[in-house]
Specification:
With about 350 residues, the chain is an alpha/beta fold. Helices cover about 25% and strands about 25% of the residues. It has a single domain (about 5-335), classed as L-arginine/glycine Amidinotransferase, Chain A (5-stranded Propeller), CATH 3.75.10. It has helices at about 30-45, 55-65, 85-90, 110, 120-130, 160-165, 175-185, 235-245, 295-305, 320, and strands spanning about 5, 10-20, 50-55, 75-80, 90-95, 100-105, 135-145, 150, 155-160, 190-195, 210-215, 220-225, 255-260, 265, 270-275, 280-285, 285-290, 310-315, 335.
Length: about 350
């Protein structure tokens, strides 16, 4: 059996999101965050389909129509949700002998930090509702979040030891056993581990999609802290040295693109928020990049454009998203070509 985890920049059928509502942690910030979700849906639907999970399809349809979103490429499914982090509870799609297959991993709220009883059932609910047509769904007895792994589509997986080896996920598995599982289930021929790097305010135990992203042509875009006074400086300097030491499957160094370091953001209680430009979403013919109303936003768009020169680079103000400690990539999960009904 030959499996392959497609790269995010390969052709897609659509993107999955879960809409914020009163029963989520967004209840106090719905006025701020709903326009962000509307804009994400608007931009994705220009290029491909959008699957939305929401408590009330009619109400959401009205909201999107009033905002001028064309609904021709939008499908809404009334399925319960705890929260909006589709990257981590959505299906991970693999090619299995050339056929697409949805892997439905366990989601435990990033190590039992948050309720996940509804979110853990969303892939199942979408499959039962026919969202994925005849694409088979495989339930996997492992805790694994989409934000914790990056794939180049050619057998390389990039991840962080802080997340995948954390005892709050799969305490019965050590590093070698996890590598074996990733090989069997995702076709990983090699796993690149980052031992350093974190963001204050991040609940995910250092998901790689907040720190370093695999890009086409053996490129890695990564967050680079240039402020020696910042608490992240030493850890991210060590991560940068790790990235410089990594080698491609052909034995060559990666082309590295540093992403700017935004000014520190804080919530009303003075807690630092995990603003990161690495949390971009690659879609058909475009890349959606989170911005934060920061002087570094334009430089971040240009840096991402270096990694994806043939695509539209579209900034979306995601400051409201980091109020709940995530960003643009975290609230989306791409659905590769060949999956949707």
């Amino acid at each position: 059996m030959t499996r392959r985890l497609p790269a995010e920049w390969e052709a897609q059928d659509g993107v999955l999101l879960a809409w914020p509502h009163e029963e989520t942690d967004w209840h106090a910030d719905l006025e701020q965050v709903e326009p962000v979700f509307v804009e994400i849906v608007r931009q994705i639907s220009r290029f491909e389909r959008v699957l939305l999970v929401a408590p009330d399809a009619r109400e959401l349809r009205t909201t999107l129509q009033m905002a001028g979103v064309c609904l021709d490429r939008v499908q809404i499914f009334e399925i319960p949700s705890n929260d909006t982090w589709a990257r981590d509870f959505g299906p991970i799609t693999v090619e299995d002998n050339g056929q697409v297959r949805l892997l439905d991993y366990g989601f435990n709220g990033w190590g039992l930090k948050f309720a996940s009883n509804f979110d853990n059932q969303i892939t199942r609910g979408l499959h039962q509702a026919g969202a994925f047509g005849s694409t088979p769904r495989e339930v996997v007895g492992l805790i694994l979040e989409g934000g914790s792994i990056e794939s180049d589509g050619r057998g390389t997986i990039l991840t962080t030891a802080e997340c995948l080896l954390n005892p709050n996920r799969n305490p019965h598995l050590d590093r070698r056993q996890i590598e074996r599982v990733l090989a069997e289930q995702l076709g990983a021929e090699r796993v690149l581990w980052l031992e350093n790097g974190y963001l204050a305010g991040d609940d995910t135990d250092s998901h790689v999609d907040t720190l370093a992203r695999l890009c086409p042509e053996d490129t890695i875009a990564y967050v680079a802290c240039d402020d020696p006074e910042d608490e992240h400086y030493e850890a991210l300097q060590r991560m940068e040295q790790e990235l410089k030491a990594l080698r491609t499957a052909a034995g060559e160094p990666y082309r590295l693109i540093p992403l700017p370091w935004p000014v520190a953001c804080y919530d009303d209680e003075g807690e630092r928020l995990p603003a990161t430009y690495a949390n971009f979403l690659v879609i058909n013919d475009a890349v959606l990049v989170p911005t934060y109303g920061d002087d570094k936003d334009q430089a971040a768009l240009e840096a991402v454009g270096q990694a994806f020169p043939a695509r539209d680079i579209i900034g979306i103000d995601c400051f409201p998203l980091i109020l709940q400690h995530g960003s643009l990539h975290c609230v989306t999960m791409q659905i590769p070509k060949g999956v949707l009904a």
